[in-house]
Write a structure and sequence with these properties.
Chain lengths: 348, 152, 533
């Protein structure tokens, strides 16, 4: 026990109290019974994926060089030359895709079980912010590979920002670091991707979890009331998901290794440019309507989605009718999203 | 008896699970380390022409550059010697002093003789040498082959 | 699924799965889309040359070529090859400097490092300026200017330099990248080995070797070294594979004559004696060649192939004997005359002379058709043995004799008037039962000589035996020939019957001919012709 003693003397906290707090907050955290169903714990998946993204992302910065001359070449170097580089890059790339998939699943579940209801409205809004931050992560990260598709996605994507009312031009210049896509854009995207967004998202994730813990998990109807401790059951779930994700993403990397594409060429726009699949609905929608209408409509949709927990009670008086509204709006959104995505996938 | 069997079985089960998780973690860490630490490549050498056999008089040296570092080609009675121009002490560049037939490092007054041995000063070991090959009266050294490009 | 036990199982299973995947991953490697060339050091002297050449814009592309070369990696810069001293034949002072450079590095310069290669080359026929030793040759037929960018360009490969060295290394090793892959490309040999007198690149491209090379060769790395005694790394041979490159049994050589058994470019095909003391006799040279062939082929195929080709060479001599007999006879009888000036002859009835048809035919039957006939047979160029070869030789002969008949030669008149098919074979014959390619059941039922001369094979036997005794065929070849001779019925397919198949095609052939007659032969147009006969 002398080691313990040694530490205690130099780090004089109330050790017993520490153990107690730790037990109360983590080990014995009461988990409601319904959480034994895998369906209800999709919220942990994006968290685990985020942790893995941070890890693989740090690994990638060991070799990535954010300059127009070197970005593509360093990605090639990581993928082809560096031992196991393709694996780390594959994990990061598949991680980003799975993170968005798992967020979509989580949000859909929360929406349809209407877990956003009072008093949890703020947590839904934070959730939407987290989703938007994740999309920003994906967009900036995708641009860093600096191949033809990513270069032109950056160009087109940043051009859209211009349409935002009042501050559009200012935002464009902010994102591009000038009027045009240049070396400044690349370093900016890099800094945003690895420096600005991570603390921001960590802050919101913490907030998300703190609010969740303060309220407790929203319990759907139809389950036997009761709780079980976090450890071991729920802890094991997290271990299983982590192991599964690592094995799954590594396998995906073997089957579909991350590609390189053509190096970015600012003088030639490729014939078929497409954003990543998660931007398909927006992309398709913007093709259907005039740009201004598209931007405003997307903005409006985002606003409705963000403040839905406050809109929902205004729509009907009884819970049953509100539920019907939520199912209707949610179902419609889902169907339109799926249709737009599939449509964009089908056309060349 | 029955209970003992039961507990032994559950002990073995737990041991199996724990070692599987442990091994998975170790493999993962190994792969990550492999990614971070560039492998030691098998060094490939090629001949590099530094002089003709009769180009220099005995006791003279010439300075050439290899991989952006100075290298001294010295003709001695015994034949050619080729030394790295980097002082073995703290990496300063040495000078050849023909009149004294020695190398001198200005940083900490290290002195090497014409054979590369430390005569005085702080250098811990003799100058690094290149392997010299004389073929058809041409003097080559063995130089490590490095790929061009930014990742060499 | 929800018990602790089940979860532990899942943890265990996924751990094992993860281990497996991670181990597979650790063993994988991605295909590289880019390889960096070795870094090069540019020494002070070379840097000086480059700076000035770039400033003045003189031959700057050669600097890029040099940077690609192995020389650049090994510290062989400009001056290592272009060094010169005042007074040397190619010395030149670089303007605005005191650097004296050799404008033309010779094999002597190359031999400072590539001693063995230069030595081997100098012992090869590439280095032999044979045309300078021969009286006049075509120098009377072509004026000097035409030869500068003609003959002399290719024959520069055997240039005799003022410094006493022989050859031109960059004829094949194009400067300044000196790429092995370029030197090895068949088209490099084909810069000179082409055209009517020695269509070697055409023969190669016609052969199975060339065909496969054209189909697949673009993906092959041709820059390999064959010095180390490794197996041949490419699927089919290029020119150098057989004539120069090494394999497990043969060392690489720059002596292209080391593996050749014939002087088959000469007026007569004779067994080579070139540098016998260094290279050994023709059989040793042939063994070197077959050692390469055996990398891919069965020995029996190789030996039979070469035996047939050797008989073609010997047969050529017998045809030539007839040409020589005629030109000599016609010279003697005064029907054709030798060129002469100041008491010196400038043509030769057995070699050249272009102003009279028989001389011309004889020259072609050797220098063009005669070589195509022989070289096609040696290198799998069927069309060159056949239509560009023997067919044209026979026509040369007919034209020669017809000319003699028209000019009053009695023997020639008799030949022209003869209506016996044997008139086209006024010489002795060699032959071999069957061919190297396979057994063709009916092929040997048609030849005129097979059917009309019961002693045909006896005559051939005596000829082949005589050639063997003369040392023109080896004992091994004679035994191989005897084996075929003794099993004629097998090799010629005579003892096999495939009549049902044969009759099937026979019927179709008759039907073809019948339809041809119906469709077009018996067809006359109603409109009258315009010229009245």
């Amino acid at each position: 026990m002398s080691v313990k003693q040694w530490i205690k003397e130099r780090f004089p906290i109330d050790y017993d109290k520490f153990v107690e707090i730790n037990e109360r907050i983590f080990i014995k955290e009461p988990i409601p019974n319904h959480m034994k169903k895998w369906f209800y714990c999709a919220g942990a998946t994006p968290l685990i994926l985020f942790a893995l993204q941070v890890f693989t992302g740090i690994l990638l910065t060991f070799y990535f060089v954010p300059s127009p001359e070197m970005a593509f070449e360093s990605v090639r170097h990581i993928t082809e030359d560096v031992r196991l580089g393709f694996w780390v890059r594959g994990l990061h790339r598949w991680g980003s895709n799975l993170m968005i998939i798992s967020l979509l699943l989580h949000m859909t579940r929360v929406f349809f079980t209407r877990a956003y209801r009072k008093p949890r409205e703020l947590n839904w809004i934070i959730g939407v912010i987290l989703f938007l931050l994740t999309l920003t992560f994906a967009f900036t990260g995708y641009s860093l590979t600096y191949n033809q598709l990513s270069y032109w996605a950056t160009t087109v994507g940043t051009n859209m920002i211009k349409e935002v009312p009042l501050v559009g031009h200012w935002l464009l210049v902010f994102w591009r670091g000038g009027e045009d896509v240049s070396a400044n854009t690349l370093t900016r995207f890099f800094t945003i991707h690895v420096g600005l967004l991570p603390p921001l998202i960590i802050f919101f994730i913490s907030l998300h979890i703190i609010i969740l813990r303060l309220h407790g998990v929203s319990e759907p109807e139809g389950f036997e009331k009761g709780y079980y401790p976090f450890y071991p059951h729920h802890f094991y779930k997290i271990v299983i998901i982590t192991l599964f994700l690592l094995a799954f993403m590594s396998t995906l990397t073997i089957i579909l290794p991350p590609g390189l594409g053509e190096p970015a060429d600012p003088t030639v726009t490729p014939f078929h440019i497409k954003p990543e699949w998660y931007f398909f609905p927006t992309y398709r929608f913007l093709k259907l309507v005039p740009l201004k209408v598209g931007i405003y409509a997307t903005g409006a949709f985002l606003l409705v989605m963000t403040f839905w927990p406050f809109i929902d009670p205004l729509l009907a008086k009884t819970e049953d009718r509100r539920r019907l509204w939520a199912y209707g709006v949610g179902g419609l959104t889902l169907i339109i999203t799926v249709i737009l995505t599939v449509w964009e996938m089908m056309v060349a | 008896m029955e209970q003992e069997k039961q507990s032994r079985r559950s002990f073995l089960f737990n041991l199996g699970i724990i070692s599987a998780v442990f091994l998975a973690t170790v493999t993962f860490i190994r792969d990550v380390i492999a990614y971070l630490v560039p492998p030691r490549k098998k060094k490939k050498f090629h001949k590099y022409l530094v002089a003709e056999e009769l180009e220099l008089p005995v006791g003279q040296a010439k300075e050439i550059t290899i991989s952006k570092k100075p290298v001294f080609v010295v003709r001695l009675k015994e034949g050619y010697k080729v030394y790295s121009g980097v002082c073995t002490h703290l990496g300063c560049i040495i000078h050849w002093e023909e009149d004294k037939q020695r190398f001198y490092c200005p940083c900490h007054k290290g002195v090497f003789d014409k054979y590369g041995n430390v005569v005085s000063g702080p250098p811990p070991r003799p100058l690094d040498q290149f392997e010299v090959i004389v073929e058809n009266r041409l003097v080559y050294i063995q130089v490590e082959e490095k790929p061009g490009g930014p990742w060499a | 699924m929800d018990t602790i036990k089940a979860q532990q199982w899942l943890i265990g299973i996924f751990s094992v799965l993860l281990i497996v995947v991670l181990i597979i991953i650790a063993g994988m490697e991605m295909k590289k889309s880019r390889e960096y060339k070795p870094e090069i050091e540019i020494d002070k002297m070379t840097a000086k040359c480059i700076t000035c050449h770039e400033k003045k814009g003189i031959a700057v592309k050669q600097i890029d070529a040099w940077k690609e070369s192995r020389h650049a990696v090994m510290g062989i810069g400009c001056y290592e090859c272009h060094e010169a001293k005042e007074g040397e034949f190619d010395a030149m002072r670089c303007p605005e400097s005191d650097i004296i450079v050799g404008r033309h590095p010779t094999p002597k310069d190359c031999s400072r490092c590539h001693k063995k290669e230069v030595q081997e080359f100098s012992e090869s026929k590439h280095a032999h300026q044979f045309w300078l030793f021969k009286n006049a040759d075509r120098a009377v037929f072509e004026f000097p200017l035409a030869t500068k960018h003609g003959c002399e360009q290719c024959h520069q490969i055997g240039n005799l330099w003022p410094d006493g060295s022989v050859g031109e290394c960059d004829a094949c090793h194009a400067k300044h990248s000196f790429s092995i892959a370029v030197a090895r490309q068949p088209e490099t040999c084909g810069e000179c080995h082409l055209g009517p007198d020695h269509p070697h690149i055409e023969i190669y491209l016609e052969s199975k070797h060339g065909n496969i090379f054209k189909a697949k060769g673009k993906d092959w790395d041709m820059s390999y070294s064959s010095k180390e005694g490794n197996p041949i790394p490419i699927e089919v041979p290029v020119c150098t594979t057989c004539h120069m490159d090494g394999n497990e049994t043969q060392p690489m050589t720059h002596n292209v004559s080391a593996r050749l058994a014939w002087e088959s470019q000469m007026t007569w095909s004779f067994r080579t004696v070139w540098n016998e003391d260094i290279l050994g006799d023709w059989q040793v040279k042939r063994d070197r060649m077959t050692a390469i062939c055996n990398s891919c082929h069965a020995p029996d195929f190789v030996d039979t192939y070469f035996l047939t080709a050797d008989l073609v060479n010997l047969q050529y001599n017998e045809i030539r004997r007839e040409f020589v007999r005629w030109t000599k006879k016609l010279t003697k009888s005064g029907l054709i005359s030798r060129l002469k000036a100041d008491g010196k002859f400038y043509s030769n009835p057995v070699l050249n002379g272009w102003d009279e048809v028989p001389e011309h035919e004889m020259y072609y039957a050797w220098h063009h058709e005669g070589r195509r006939f022989r070289h096609g047979a040696e290198m799998m160029g069927a069309d060159y043995t056949q239509w560009h070869g023997i067919w044209e030789i026979q026509e040369d002969m007919i034209e020669l004799i017809t000319w003699a008949a028209e000019h009053g030669d009695a023997e020639a008149k008799k030949w022209v008037n003869s209506d016996h098919p044997s008139k086209f074979i006024p010489y002795a014959l060699y032959d071999i039962p069957g061919n190297v390619w396979g057994i063709n059941v009916k092929a040997n039922t048609t030849p005129f000589v097979y059917n009309n001369y019961p002693d045909y094979w006896d005559r051939v036997y005596k000829n082949v035996e005589a050639a063997y005794k003369q040392g023109l065929l080896s004992e091994k070849q004679w035994n191989l020939w005897l084996k075929r001779y003794k099993n004629k019925d097998h090799y010629m397919g005579l003892k096999y019957s495939a009549d049902s198949t044969w009759n099937y095609y026979k019927q179709r052939n008759e039907y073809d001919l019948k339809k041809m007659k119906e469709q077009v032969i018996d067809f006359t147009l109603p409109g009258k012709p315009f010229y009245k006969k």
